[in-house]
Automatic annotation (TrEMBL):
This is Pimeloyl-ACP methyl ester carboxylesterase. Residues 1-22 are annotated as: Disordered. It comes from Nocardiopsis aegyptia.
Amino acid sequence: MSRAGRGHDPVSSAPTPAATNEGIAEPLAVEELGSFHIGGREATLSGLDTRELRVTPAAPAIEIDPNGEFEVEQMYVQYVRLASPRARYPLLMWHGGGLSGVTWETTPDGRPGWMNLFLRYGHDVYVSDAVERGRASWARFPEIFATEPFFRSKQEAWEGFRIGPSWTGDPGERIPYPDSQFPVASFDRFAKQLVPRWATNDPCTQSAYDELVRHAGPCVILAHSQGAVFALRAAAAAPETVKAVVVLEPGGAPDPRHEDISAMRNTPVLCVWGDHVEDHEVWSDLRRSCERYWHAQSDQGGIADTIDLPEEGIRGNSHLIMMDRNSDLIAARVQQWLESRGFMK
């Protein structure tokens, strides 16, 4: 652990027995699994033109009326509750930008994802599709969502997620980093996960996440990339409910020069960084801005830990740490931190 909050010893880099894959291969004893939608509001549309549409080839054309009342800006949540959880609080798993809860379910090369791993570590889990993503669904734009969606290309994902330094479009010519931990042979399968996103929906997304925290009760949040900002703000808004926040490669953090983070003084936070951050201008800038938050958290006497994987000799991790070939190892490091902070029974 490369950094710890004031008055707290860093955690050893050697996993404890409970934070390895030993003993977690038994069948899961699940008490309940299900899903729900949360957040959102009713929106009313009027004055829009109707049109005729043939919804299936064999059916006659019908009139489609876009006017009426609609539920919009909701979030989708899938949950799994164990019969005998060993963690003190459920783990809320929040995805990054242009992604969905699939992030946590299964790796692109078919290995169990972190949802499965943390269930086996003894956590109840809640995996969400944020507002506008996946099963949360869209709303009309510009009538409800203020702007049109934008989409991430495969080249942007390859380079922006730091899988490799260059892209030609030809699978035989894509150049990964020599030490890349991402399963590059499965990159095209990963790209099928990419979903549209909107640049104008942060307020309603934050509102839905805040409502999820209230619904779940005392909890720990594990967030990736864009989800980190929502997680840190949700924790600051409910410091008695959010017991800890773990962020993987945060895509930003509240700026302590402009936002009051004093409510986070008693909330432990952990940040995990992969490799080649300094090789990428955007990510090196983002890391510096995130470290401003981590320093402020530490300066106010809070716990602000960082796992810098390259600094620990673990090389080649991409922005998609939970999908990399060594993802089980990194999950074990996160689990070790949760154990060290007293979040297991």
